[in-house]
Design brief:
The protein is α+β, with helices and mostly antiparallel strands. The chain is 40% helix and 14% strand.
């Protein structure tokens, strides 16, 4: 066990802190669309200029520079719009800094791996824990050149980090690079230009508690009427009082509409965003708000009614139900999904699989789902896996971050908690201790199913293998473990697990198993026994009849 790393302690994942719902802005007039485009272009230009100023400040940013930028924007729009723009700018700059730190970490991991493999003799074989040397001198030379390139990139990234310099693209770097590959993206220059301009628009407003309907800039009444506070240069386009423009379209949120209506009726803060989907030619309206911090379910409470262990794979979830003692119950469940195709298709597949998983958890009556705390940040580098290109593509395609966020938010709506466990050795130990014993002619166990058992046991606080043969798990389901190794007495020590006083089928005094037990003791106080016909054990026909004890039933 000396080579194994220390496992992290399981924990209950905090619930979601925000809600976002969306509806389509249908039946807009051409004048409505013209006004929305004008507002988006004007405020998008202000947001681009503000982001440029924030990036130029770098580490010199302070409350004074923030206030100066906000005053400059207020003169061209309004104080609330200026506040929303500067807040979005700070969030985008902070996201760029986090991505920069992750990039530096990835470069450092690749440099360490390259230096290690280059230091080994050519042709030296690797181990399960570390890669070996390169196969030929040609490959060694190419990797030495790549090491020099990564070191240069790392030096430049560190210099940018220390100087507070980030590189941000409003509209997205991927869409910007698509401009150079229009044929491959099946886009014309005009269509790309429309998408680029729409992504750089800014039609959004932060909510304010205590204000009418929770937002003064973009106001939505309980009956769905939408009105926008126009910036000062566009005030001549207003069709209502106080420089506001009212859209002809009405909003009716089908999902969480009641919760949204309760918030705006109580004048609680709700943030809104309006954006155009150029591919469909549709306008969408998004409402979002924060939830108060809710105390998560204690870990012991989440374990009280058992657990469902889920092993995440590239094309399916492998799940197994376990009782609170860590015993597998029933057969394994698999929830497939297809992560090929467009982003919308992948998202729909993921949501459908998670919905089926959560519905099964509700039917099983558990309070929590155990899942691995996966993070493939350090596992995606080609320096670590070398020629295993397909494996790198496999782990890169697994949406671990999106999966965890979506599972937490969907489970919270059904009153379920998510317990995250350390993913180390779950597949290896699960296959070693659970796959073969649970395989029957009518039950096919895969390595992933066994990993689900290992994950569930770790989430319940049990080791993957507790020293008892998994083939006798039925005994543990009744609150007992297998007998000590020598015989049925406690010569080698007491049983490792004993059921509580309230558990069904707990151990107690067993009734006699002879067929004269119902007659009770003899008048003399001595127990009567029938004579045995033969003194030879193998020749004699036993006069005792074996009675099956209900405590030993394993059905």
């Amino acid at each position: 066990m000396g080579g194994l790393r220390k496992l992290a302690v399981p924990f209950v994942v905090p619930g979601p802190c925000g809600v976002a719902i969306r509806d389509r802005l249908g039946h807009l007039t051409p004048h409505d669309e013209m006004v929305l485009r004008a507002v988006g272009e004007h405020q998008g230009a202000l947001a681009s200029r503000d982001l440029k100023d924030r990036c130029a400040d770098g580490h010199d940013h302070s409350a004074q520079t923030w206030a100066a930028r906000k005053r400059e924007l207020t003169a061209r729009s309004s104080s609330r719009i200026a506040g929303a723009i500067t807040k979005a700018t700070h969030d985008q700059w902070a996201l760029a800094r986090r991505c920069q730190a992750a990039h530096m970490k990835s470069l450092a991991a690749g440099i360490r791996t390259l230096r290690h493999r280059l230091s080994l003799p050519i042709g030296e074989k690797g181990t399960r824990r570390a890669a070996g040397g390169y196969r030929s001198r040609g490959e060694w030379f190419r990797k030495s050149r790549r090491l020099a390139a990564l070191e240069d990139r790392h030096t430049a990234a560190v210099a940018d980090w220390q100087a507070g310099r980030v590189r941000v693209v409003r509209g997205g770097k991927r869409l910007l690079n698509t401009r150079h590959h229009l044929t491959q993206a099946q886009l014309t220059e005009d269509r790309w230009r429309q998408r680029w301009e729409a992504e750089r628009w800014f039609v959004a407003a932060d909510g304010e508690s205590g204000k009418r309907f929770g937002n003064e800039t973009i106001r939505v009444t309980p009956d769905g009427e939408v009105s926008i506070k126009l910036p000062a240069p566009l005030a001549h386009l207003a069709n209502a009082q106080h420089g506001r423009y009212t859209l002809t379209s009405r909003i009716a949120f089908a999902h969480r509409g009641g919760e949204w209506a309760d918030r705006i009726t109580a004048h609680r803060a709700v943030a809104y965003r309006i954006h155009l989907d150029t591919e469909r030619g549709r306008w969408y309206f998004t409402a979002s708000w924060q939830r108060p911090v809710v105390q998560t379910m204690p870990l012991e409470t989440a374990r009280a009614r058992g657990m469902i262990g889920v092993d995440t794979n590239a094309d399916h979830f492998a799940a197994y139900l376990l009782d609170r003692h860590g015993n597998p119950v029933g057969d394994p469940h698999r929830f497939p999904y297809d992560l090929s195709g467009t982003a919308a298709h992948r998202d729909a597949q993921l949501r459908h699989a998670l919905t089926r998983l959560i519905n099964w958890a509700k039917q099983a009556g558990v309070a929590a789902i155990g899942i691995e705390d996966l993070d493939f940040t350090a596992e995606k580098t080609r320096e670590k896996h070398g020629r295993r290109k397909r494996f790198r593509q496999l782990i890169s395609g697994m949406p671990t971050g999106k999966l965890q966020a979506r599972l937490v938010s969907m489970a919270a709506e059904h009153g379920l908690s998510i317990v995250a466990v350390d993913p180390a050795y779950t597949s290896q130990w699960g296959a070693q201790h659970w796959q073969k014993p649970l395989t029957t002619p009518h039950r096919k166990m895969s390595r992933h199913d066994a990993a689900g058992i290992a994950i569930g046991r770790r989430a319940l606080g049990h080791p993957v293998r507790d020293g008892v043969s998994p083939a006798r798990t039925e005994l543990r389901a009744w609150g007992r473990t297998a007998p000590p190794p020598h015989d049925r007495s406690d010569r080698a020590g007491h049983r490792t697990v004993q059921a509580g006083p309230g558990d069904r089928g707990r151990e107690g005094t067993r009734p006699p198993t002879t067929d004269r037990a119902h007659e009770g003791p003899s008048p003399s106080g001595k127990r009567k026994r029938e004579p045995i016909a033969s003194n030879t054990v193998r020749d004699a026909r036993s006069t005792q009849r074996w009675v099956q004890d209900s405590l030993m039933c394993t059905g």
